[in-house]
Specification:
The chain is of the alpha+beta class and 175 residues long. The chain has one domain: NADH Oxidase (3-Layer(aba) Sandwich). It has 5 helices and 4 strands, in the order H-H-E-H-E-H-E-H-E. It has a 4-stranded antiparallel beta sheet, with helices on both faces. The longest helix has 18 residues. It binds flavin mononucleotide. The site of flavin mononucleotide has 10 residues, from strand 3.
Length: 175
Amino acid sequence: MDLFEAILNRRSIRRYMSKPVEEEKVLKCLYAAIWAPSAHNSQHWNFIVVTDAETRRKLAEIHRWGRFMAESPVVIAVVGDPSKSAFWREDLGAATQNLLLAAYAQGLGTCWMGVADTPYEEPIKKLLGIPENLRVLCTVSLGYPAEKPVRGREPLSRKVHWEKYGVQKEINLTF
Ligand SMILES: Cc1cc2nc3c(=O)[nH]c(=O)nc-3n(C[C@H](O)[C@H](O)[C@H](O)COP(=O)(O)O)c2cc1C
């Protein structure tokens, strides 16, 4: 799949089919994740793959904005070690985005749920047996999509500044 096709058409999916996800597809998502850049190539990421329905139900109960984790056949918790990288959030964020794009390229839907520094982090760590010194950046729901949401973006021309902040111009791009 063309990279731009994946980047431009991936959308967060919050409704899922009950069809299970093939383990090979999950592993390919995680393989894409570990090829993300990380500060000093520290690669301190760990991924907890949750398929157990009861654990997913508990995750959904904990995370107010992630109730659909009870429905997505897979949930992946993205875990890192702040003692290994001052940029642990960025490292795990880059890995997560790779995961989302690799899922899309395989016909799967995902939704990123923020966990670090929320009230959900400690209960999620406890539920998944994550050591005290590690952090959870996010959980990601994964499964075959049961919706096709349409979402937009603000125009690029409003986000790009040329040479100095505030200097903007019209942008015409075609893909
Ligand atoms: C750091 C971060 C945290 C997010 N947390 C949640 C969340 O808790 N629940 C949720 O439904 N979506 C969450 N999202 C998904 C965003 O709402 C979504 O990416 C955004 O609305 C744009 O939609 P799109 O992904 O379909 O383009 C999160 C995304 C990011 C990057």
